[in-house]
Amino acid sequence: MADTAMGTVRQIDDFCKTYEHETAHCFELDNGRGLKATFTTLGATILTLDVPDRRGDSANVLLGPADMGQILSPKSPYLGALVGRVAGRIANGRFSLDGQQYQLTTNDGTHSLHGGNHGYNRRNWKAKVLDGASLCLSLVEDSSADGYVGIVTVKVIYTLTANNAWRIEYEATTTEPTPINLTQHAYFNLKDAGRTDILDHVVKINAQDYTVNGPDLVATGEIKPVAGTPYDFTSPKPIGRDIGQLTNSPRGYDVNFVIAADAGPLREVAEVVEPTTGRRMIVRTTEPGIQLYTGNFLDGKFSNHVGYPYNQYAGLCLETQHFPNSVNIPNFPNTILRPGETFRSVTEYEFSAQ
User: I need a surface site. Which of 191, 192, 245, 284 has the fewest CB within 10 A?
Assistant: First the structure.
């Protein structure tokens, strides 16, 4: 157990299970300022995140898996998981790199989604407790079963900071050239952790443009302004205000917003306010894009640990990332990592109440 003025980490056993002859462990982080989170090594998954409301009462604000079976399910909605080797959809599971064609396994119709069948959300990571409310999870992976090449070494550090932020620091290296796009698939419901929907959550996204999807939700390479569309969150608005104008099925937001032309310094990219509790979340990232997903595919088949179901719109994701399908679109930010290079990325979700 690490215990400093900046908080504590302790190992807890109620989620520990044996998985393919390995044990998945669970840890609780507490910053001593009202922010508390639990994580499991399976999928580097965040299970709960307790955040104070305007009265100072802390409660969980995340949709989390009820058990290990939900994490490992082929139909998993990636509740709280770290996803990779490549987050988002790769069209038809194919790409070309250095003159060679690659065919990935497809797990979303004809497309590859979030790393395929053996993505990072299904791997058991190694844990190291750091000083303060900080935990390092690492993974050495060979995804050849999904069609990728090279051995990728990944490290993520989860920290609950003194200013009530959940800070995520990613790092990766590779033995062969490969696409890399890592993100956290946390579903937030700042009101009640998914008992009701998030349509009244007020969202602002600092983006003038978005990447256009085809009918199968795969990025086409086209970039359009958000002005005059339901995707305009440049001024704060409730999630539900314009959702009826969307034509995708199931209806809802599942779109990447253009923050910058490429990765850059840590900057504020989004804000979410829940009016009933007063909880406020600020998102900062070094990534060039952020994906807004409103839980469109949630259908009640997954539930929390006490059994209430996660229905459509039970939570929203703000996934900081490089643009989806970048490996097939030259004008999108580069996602290729080469030997001798190190991928680095930082995202923070900072909480307060008003």
Answer: 245
